[in-house]
Amino acid sequence: MNETQALVQEFTEKTMAEAIFKLRDITWLKAQGHDRLRQQFTHSHILLVVTGGRGRLRLENEEYQLRQDAIYVCPPMLTFGIVPDSADHLEMYMLRFDVFMETRDRHRRFQALREKHLFPFRGEISVQSAGQLPVYCDLIQNLWKQETALDRFRGQHTFQELWYHIVKHAHFSATDSGMALERARAHMEEHYSENVTIEQLARIAEVSPKYFVDLYKKTYGISAMDYLAELRISRAKQMMVQSHAKLRDIAHQVGYNDEFYFSRKFKKAVGVSPTLYMKSRQRKIAAYGSTIIGNLMALKMIPYAAPLHPKWTAYYHHTYRNDIPVHLSAFRINQNWKANIELLRDAKPDVIIGLDETSLQEQQQLNEIAPTLYVPFEEQGWKEQLQLMADFLGESVEAHHWLCEYEKKVKRAQAKLQHVLGEETVLIVRVLKNQLYVHCNRSMNEVFYQDLQVKSAFESQQKVYDQLVTVQDLAALKPDRLLLLVCQEAETLECFQALKASGPWQEIEAVRNNRAHVIKSDPWREYSATAHERIVEESVRLFSGDRPC
Q: Were both Cys, which of 42, 54, 251, 417 would link to 256 (CB 3.0–4.6 Å)?
């Protein structure tokens, strides 16, 4: 019996009778290919019930292949995102809910069950008789849409019945094909340095080799042998950073007898030879903030330690999580700084680079770990910040070269945008809960409006602003194009859906002409060289054709 199973059993035996499940809302989702549900933060529990298709769920740093014979639970105060397979429509119910239990103290209050030991359902839970789950969800959704309080009360009652079915039929056996594939995948992760064959993996999954090849590729979107190669390259990168082993020894330790064949595979996967990669990783640089990561990447330097998270630093997490050995917390970093300090003490970096906004208490402890540079954030622009870091690291020539290339890229982008936009005006709007703000941060001002010379529909004495407006105000400003920065959390997303369906919103000229584009906080809210280069690229993509929100 594993830990989750033990906690579920304890919850069932001791707590279930006293728990109160309260449904917040239920949504039926249908997506295909690029229609992904971006990584978003949740204040409540999330229950996912798949009714058709295939896709993947990322729960913080864990990833699950979505199946119809299981349920998926995301606890509060975490992030989750969903990516459907391109070949199939992914269909599922998403239910937001809270769990309460009456306290036993003299006040007799209701306590929300948020911690794992109190409400142990998290991630994937296989369910026998899973075919009944969509039936419950259909009924709950129909009742939830009704206007009468009695019908909605019955919907809450049916939600209780749904959880009764889940808890009663939850099981943890590894007999289904999904778990069998997971066993094969786990075998590769543990024995990547050995001579792993398809025949061997198929025996572990208890299927024929041909069926295993097809099933693995369809389930994970990558062949088993390609995944094995990724594991080996990833492990080789870690060894290159963490030791001074010879290339021949590293090749042998990750499963390649021929170091020249390994070098070819490595260069094809990474883009540079193993020798150049090791040279670039000789110094252990700790990036104490996402802005620092973005500037280091412009200098072609991958940090040894950095804040990584699938939502808060999505681009760096997706692109470099296997290249950065030490993952600092990126979630509300001001709250988790003590844990980050301990990670850096253990990592023993050669240098640390942070922002001068870092608290004096943090600075004092960082200074004890390694030589530290604090980059002035408000007093210097991003180009000066990049040059300061480059001088500190002895990479001034690289910084000059990168800035020259950036200027060339900006000029090419200016010409393209001028051809597409002409005299059209653009307005950036931030959406938070049921509020709208005309928005411009430092990156938007310096890159979008100044470097790219895009015309704003909003006149302001301030270069950076965040002004509350109404839908009527937006209509009166008459922007030719709208860029919408929508906060990725449940209440805002729900309000935004309602806003898009409203008459006043549909009457805004930019919306009516399919000139409203949703943009991501990454890279638009990061003040760094790499983020600004990506804003230039994203701007050209945004305005190259119709992309209605």
A: 251
pTM for this one? 0.76
Residue 214 CB partners (closer than 8 Å, separation 6+): none
Q: How large is the average pLDDT for residues 174-184?
A: 67
What is the C-alpha radius of gyration for the chain, rounded to an integer number of angstroms? 26
- Nearest CA to 61 out of 70, 48, 74, 71 is that of 74
Per the CB < 8 A criterion, the answer to whether 293 and 327 are in contact is no
What 8-state DSSP symbol labels residue 350?
S
List, in sequence order, every beta strand (DSSP E) within 455-549. 455-456, 465-469, 481-486, 516-519
Name the helix (H) or strand (E) containing 405.
Answer: helix 396-421
Greatest pairwise CA separation for the chain in angstroms: 72
- Closest CA relative to residue 141, chosen from 129, 155, 162: 155
For residues 308 and 328, is the Cβ–Cβ distance under 8 A?
yes
Query: Residues 381-395: what's their mean pLDDT?
Result: 95
Q: Return the pLDDT at 104.
A: 66
Range in 213-227, 234-248, 424-438 with the lowest mean pLDDT: 234-248
Residue 364 identity:
Q
CB contact set of 56 (below 8 Å; sequence gap of 6+): 63, 64, 65, 66, 82, 83, 85, 221
Residue-wise pLDDT tens digits, 405-425: 999 999 999 999 999 999 999
Q: Could you give the CA distance from residue 79 to residue 39 in angstroms, rounded to a whole number? A: 6
The vertex-55 CA angle with 67 and 166, nearest 5°, equals 30
CA angle 498, 500, 501 (to 5 degrees): 65
**Domains assigned to the chain:** 3-171 (2.60.120.10), 177-277 (1.10.10.60), 285-394 (3.40.50.1980), 413-542 (3.40.50.1980)
Instruction: Give residue 211's pLDDT.
Output: 86
The string of pLDDT tens digits covering residues 53-72 is 888 898 987 888 888 888 99
Please state, in angstroms and rounded to a whole number, the distance separating the CA atoms of residues 78 and 23.
18
- Inform me whether the pLDDT recorded for 175 exceeds 50: no
Give the pLDDT confidence score for residue 174 in this predicted structure.
45
pLDDT of residue 129: 80
Q: Which residues contact 1 (CB under 8 A, 6 or more apart)?
A: 9, 172
Cis peptide bond N-terminal to 76, omega within 30: no
State the DSSP code for 28: E
Answer whether residue 114 shows pLDDT above 90: no
Output 418-423 pairs: Cβ under 8 A, ≥24 positions apart: 418/453, 420/543, 420/544, 421/454, 421/455, 421/480, 421/481, 421/543, 423/455
| pLDDT > 90? residue 511 | yes
